[in-house]
Amino acid sequence: MLKTIVKKGSYHDSVVLMLLTNQISALEGVKKASIMMATPANKDIFRQSGLDTQELMEATANDMVVVADVEDDSLLDQIMETAEEFFKKQSTVSAGKQEESVKSWDKALDKLPDANLAVISIPGMYAALEADRALDEGMNVFMFSDNVSLEDEVALKKKAHEKGLSVMGPDCGTGIIQSVPIAFTNKVAPGSIGIIGASGTGIQELTTIIDRLGEGVNNAIGTGGRDLSTAVGGITMMDMIDAMEKDDTVKVLIVISKPPAKEVREKISDRLSNFSKPVITLFLGEKPEYHEENFYHTYTLDETARLAVSLVRGEEIPEATADVDSSEFYKAKDKKTIKAYYSGGTLANEAAMLIKDAMNCEIPPEDIEGYMLQLNGNVVIDLGDDAYTKGKPHPMIDPAKRIECMQEAVDDESTGAILFDIMLGYGSHEDMAGALIPTIEELKKKAENAGRKVFFVATVCGTRKDFQGYDEAVKKLKDAGVIVCENNKLAVRTAIQAIGLDFEEPAKEIRTKKTAIAEKAEPSEKLMQLLSQKPKIINIGLKSFAEVAEDFGCEVIQYDWMPPAGGDVRLIKTLNFLRNYEGIDEANRRVIAKVVASQPVIKHVKRAKEVIPQIAEGKVILHAGPPIEYKNMPDPVQGSCVGAVLFEEWADNEADARALLESGEVKFIPCHHCNAVGPMGGITSANMPVFVVKNETDGNEAYCTMNEGIGKVLRFGAYSEEVVNRLRWMRDVLGPTLDRAITELGGLSVNPLVAKAVAMGDEFHQRNIAASLAFMKEVAPTITRLDMSEKDRYDVIKFLADTDQFFLNIMMATAKSVMDGARTITDGTIVTSMCRNGVEFGIRIAGMGDEWFTGPVNTPKGLYFTGYDEEDGCPDMGDSAITETFGVGGMAMIAAPAVTRFVGAGGYEDALRVSNEMAEITIDHNPNFIIPTWNFQGTCLGIDARLVVEKGITPVINTGIAHKIAGYGQVGAGTVHPPMECFEKAILAYAKKLGFEA
Question: Which residue range or ranges hold the ATP-citrate synthase/succinyl-CoA ligase C-terminal domain (predicted)?
């Protein structure tokens, strides 16, 4: 039965998960298993394997998914325990490394601003987008990732060329830059031979032969397999030829590739004919008949390496020989075949070429994926081809597929020789020889028992400095009866001889060089710097690449990449457009500058109809959140409307009030459309007293009703006589009293009150006690001097003293006035409003003005009063999230660690974590409001919708929880997050406004 485990937000590299899959699959009782990130491409692989489930399809690209066909449910616990131990071991392996780790481009560039190389090893569908970002940041790119479209490769390489940079790849498996191994590379001595090639095993074979012959390589640049295609035109190759010519450390240049497109080959050859140093070309599959002066043309990798060393030394290097007893080899008449299984395409291609040569056979390349040759029973397969590695480990790190192939080969009675490579070096299996030997010994015995002989022939690609140990690997194989050859050419020739055939490699004469007319370009300073200094690397993906570079003395930042924007390519492209669009960052800064410069002042407390024109005539009710009809409002909000009708005396009982509300006679308007905000239900009617806060900097005002206290109150949907009477007392006594006091004070500046309260432990959404007391401290002396009854005076001061949350509504009006002033900047991606109506959550961003972007509202998570639980909670509602937009509330959790337990966040460490996370999606800190518990940083400021979408982090909002049934009032408090959908819609709309649509 298929069982699925989804680990939300748990990202791991594909290679790591492939290795874990192998381990899980080996557990007893597990018939089949696959562990991958739930990207669209991986979901297809799951589906093709018969492992697709509903839970998998609902997961996102940032979720790790385990799908296993198991005999018993109890195995799931064992699977997860095994996975946890595996990840723990992975962490332990890296624990001693010093490379720094970050989770975003911004942090990476902050840590290493002069980085000049991005090493990218992430899923191909995202690799091009990250490479584009790296180029924008002035960095060269080494793209290990494959499955990048040809269109993207062309665009990236053209962009790199224009910027004086280089893109190595995609599918660039191997590189050496200033003796630093990049990706799957061997530990090679530095030296005066330069290499430019398609990458992969071809470069490894060349560099390791050169190393074992006693010479070295400073730079071996991989171009990617398609660079010399007609579409790409050799962009990387040509730029690197120019750079290598100017590099004084290069004495001999090697250029290696599969056969290029005809016109590209001519362009490359013409340029190399003008090269000022000795140059060797190896176009695999071509069999050149001569050399030219200082322009040499070779047939095999071994010939190329030996010739390069001989040119450096000025002496001929003899060919290697195989130590083998050929007396038992088959004769041609025996009609035996070779089965060759390789880790990479270049060595496999060379093997196929030599076998065809031995058979005097000219045949086109095979159409079957992975097959380099399939001729009369002879087979050469590149097991590193995508056909064999999609969703599975590469044969360099996992012996499973090669073992399976060897078993099939021995079962074929025609098989006389099994040919294979062992790749040593960084990224490869720690002991591939040891992993294959039990199978080899078993198969040799099986063939002997059947009266047959199968010759196992291997080449070990590596140096004596590789951690696996070259000599140790050779000895293990020889002890197991394997014929081990010094290089691939010799191994192929030995396998060919083992079936009674051979090929000729005639000596070449040296002719006068024909120099073509070819333009030489001046290499950029950035390319020359890349070839002359140790690279400064941002490593995006496989951590092992960073660890190796660090071991070689490089400055490295490990970017623990996760798919941005939940892996949605359309959104990622939109984000890239908005990141590069000129003026957005500047506009966002101007929005922030307005917020910082604002001077909000409490001017008055007036009846709503006196300051809000839309509410002055007729039956009008303002509500929280984006627009909503009465019939669609949740029950508590409808209850609040009933309370407002009773308060305004538009009806004298609940039944008549509901009938009026349902009749359509009452007009409903969002508070935000009237420069107002309202807590929870947000209900505001004509005669309710509201704070008038003026943003003196911009001259605009904002309004908010007064806080009623806690318990059964109108904002939570209660509408009893007690609730209505309190509202009338606030209208008749509290409001006028505060208005008189504030007027006499000449207004009350809010910023100083906020600054004091932040330092005293308020965050201004759940905790307002310090600010409420500071407010009372300012107005109480004046109230004591007002001409009013002693009872009213006492009641007012007592109410202010008892209402810990009183300042919340002042903060809401303040935030509204400031953000409305800031959003007069009509460009950029800063969030200027967030609100909810119990059904929808809505946001606005500066660049889209008054337009709302909505999504389904969530229900808060938190702590409930005794007798209530989550089943009783109402979906989130209210305009109070304007405080988070202003940078307080949940955005300033660290300011009020006393609140964190109450809102369900935990303790101080959780508060710190939340605030640090919120800093990831904001662009600045507000210097007006310093938080002592946060190393005296200012509160978070400027929620950038781009960052929210890119990082998958939505703002945290502190909130009260209303009962889902009107009349119960508040039943708890907690935190809630907006739906990501709001922010996605906002950035897509803004990009479209600017002329871009992905």
Answer: 342-495
Query: Cα–Cα distance between 733 and 678 in angstroms, integer?
Result: 21
Instruction: Find where tokens 């030599």 sit.
Output: 354
Question: Alpha-carbon distance 902 to 785, whole Å?
Answer: 39
Axis-axis angle for helices 721-729, 635-648 (nearest 10) = 60
**Are 436 and 403 a contacting pair, CB within 8 Å?**
yes
Closest by Cα among 388, 481, 389, 466 to 431: 466
The DSSP string of 460-528 is EE--TTSTT-HHHHHHHHHHTT-EEESSHHHHHHHHHHHTT--------EEEPP-PPP-PPPPPPHHHH
DSSP state of 261: P
| pTM for the full predicted model | 0.79
Taking 50 as the threshold, does the pLDDT of residue 514 lie above it?
A: yes
Tokens found for residue 558: 């490990």
* DSSP string over 631-644: GGS-HHHHHHHHHH
Return the closest-CA partner of residue 758 out of 940, 892, 880: 892
Determine the average pLDDT of the residues in 970-983.
88
> Cα–Cα distance between 977 and 962 in angstroms, integer?
16
Structure tokens at 624: 């929280």
The number of C-alpha atoms within 13 Å of 183 and in the hemisphere containing its C-beta is 32
- Specify whether the CB–CB gap between 419 and 341 falls below 8 A: yes
Distance separating alpha carbons of residues 215 and 207, to the nearest angstrom: 9
Q: Tokens 């623990």 sit at which residue?
A: 560
Question: Distance between CA 366 and CA 950 in Å, rounded?
Answer: 43
b/e per residue 477-514 (b: at least 16 CB within 10 A) = beebebbbbbbbbbbbbbbbbbbbbebebeebeeeeee
Note the pLDDT of residue 96. Answer: 46
Give the dihedral of Cα atoms 763, 766, 772, 775; nearest 10 deg: 50
Tokens of 915: 């605030």
Q: How far apart, in Å, are the Cα atoms of 265 and each of 286, 294, 297, 318, 448?
A: 12, 18, 13, 30, 49
Provide the 10 A C-beta neighbour count for residue 653: 11
Q: Report whether 419 contacts 338 (CB < 8 A).
A: yes
Please tell me the distance from the alpha carbon of residue 965 to that of residue 425, in angstroms, as a whole number: 67
Question: In Å, how far from its chain's centre is CA 540?
Answer: 9
Contact 774, 750 (CB under 8 A): no
Calculate Rg over the CA atoms of the chain. Answer: 36
Q: What confidence tier does 90 reach under pLDDT thresholds 50, 70, 90?
A: low
Q: Which residues pair with 602 in a beta bridge?
A: 693, 748
Q: Which two tokens stand for residue 983?
A: 């922010």
Q: What is the pLDDT of residues 741-780, one digit of tens each?
A: 999 999 999 999 999 999 998 888 888 899 999 999 999 9
Q: Are 982 and 843 in contact (CB under 8 A)?
A: yes
3-state percent helix, strand, coil for the chain, nearest multiple of 5 = 45, 20, 35
- For the chain, the first-to-last Cα distance in angstroms comes to 40
Asked if the peptide bond before residue 636 counts as cis, ω within 30 degrees of 0, the response is no
Task: Give the separation between CA 9 and CA 562, rounded to whole angstroms.
Answer: 9
CA dist., res. 139 & res. 243, Å (int)? 16
Q: Determine the Cα–Cα distance for residues 474 and 494; give it in Å rounded to an integer.
A: 16
The torsion region of residue 377 among left (phi > 0), alpha (psi -120 to 50) and beta comes to left
- The DSSP bridge pattern shows strands 620-623 and 700-705 to be unpaired
Q: Is residue 911 very low, low, confident or very high in pLDDT (cuts 50, 70, 90)?
A: confident
* Side-by-side strand order, sheet with 64-70: 2-7, 64-70, 30-37
- Strand-strand pairing, 700-705 and 831-837: unpaired
> What integer pLDDT is reported at residue 959 of this predicted model?
83
* Among the listed residues 624, 642, 823, the one whose alpha carbon sits nearest the alpha carbon of residue 717: 642
